[in-house]
Amino acid sequence: MNASRSKLFLYHSATSVCSQKVRLVLAELELAWEGQVLDLARGDQFEAAYLALNPAGVVPTLLFDDRCVVESNVIMVQLCEHCPDSPVSLQHRCAQDLDRQWLEKSGDLHSAINALTYAAVNRKKLQALSREELDSRINRVPDPARGARLRDIVERGYNSSAVVGALECLAVMLPEVEQRVENSLYLSGENTGLADLAVLPFILRLELLGLDFLWQSKGATLASWLQRMKERNSFGSAVDAFLTAPARAKFSAAAPEAAVKVRRCLSQ
Fold it and tell me: CA dist 178 to 87, 95, 174, Å?
């Protein structure tokens, strides 16, 4: 994999929630960057050249002033520190403790959204593989625990412990988001900050999977925050531009069944 000599070079995936987080910050900071889109379904993240940069085999990875920075939350904070006078960076300095809390919580959200996405969108494709092909795919995952989690979702679907845990996480987290944006316009305070940019992709993924009923039935506060975030210029360039017609079709096709299955899980 050949990185450009540009100051900022991002290895990312078009629909990856963690890639969206970093692209949102880049857009809010109005930073010029170049990048390479990895096809995660094809397994680009497991190529030896990429694993040399990111041994976990996940996206995104940022080459930043000849430094290799991995883990989306770390990248977001370092980019803010690089542009201390931007509105998002100024808000981050005003709400560092609050941002830090939501960045940490976004890790739990990532696990939850990852499990639901695999159950809803990726499971059928993986089930269609032969046993040998599935084993080969899972064995390429560097972290054995992640591989075992993936196998459990493939084999058990919405009955997987990962999916059950995901719904338990959301039952706690979504009311926390709702409560926070009832008290201020944004998670970071009266202005958009890292907390908002970290959480937005996960809420958007739930919406794409037809699971927005998880908050719509409880009031309009979270929905209003989501709409405000979608209206920002950064959303168009960092998220919407990468949601191609095939990607949207993939989520739309999975959404009806996902909504039915999740409602059934919640009623048990």
Answer: 24, 18, 6
Distance between CA atoms of 6 and 19, rounded to whole angstroms?
A: 19
Which tokens sit at 206? Answer: 């739930």
**Tokens 């100024």, residue?**
90
Backbone angles phi, psi at 98, to 5 degrees: -65, -45
**Pairwise CA distance, residues 84 & 71, whole Å:** 20
pLDDT of residue 268: 84
Lowest mean pLDDT among 42-46, 127-131, 155-159, 213-217: 213-217
Structure pTM? 0.94
Round to the nearest angstrom and report the end-to-end CA distance of the chain.
Answer: 48
Show the tokens assigned to 134.
């599935």
pLDDT tens digit string along 135-161?
A: 999 999 999 999 999 999 999 999 999
Q: Is the dihedral of CA 221, 222, 223, 226 positive or negative?
A: positive
Question: Token pair 């095939």 is at which residue?
Answer: 246
SS3 61: strand
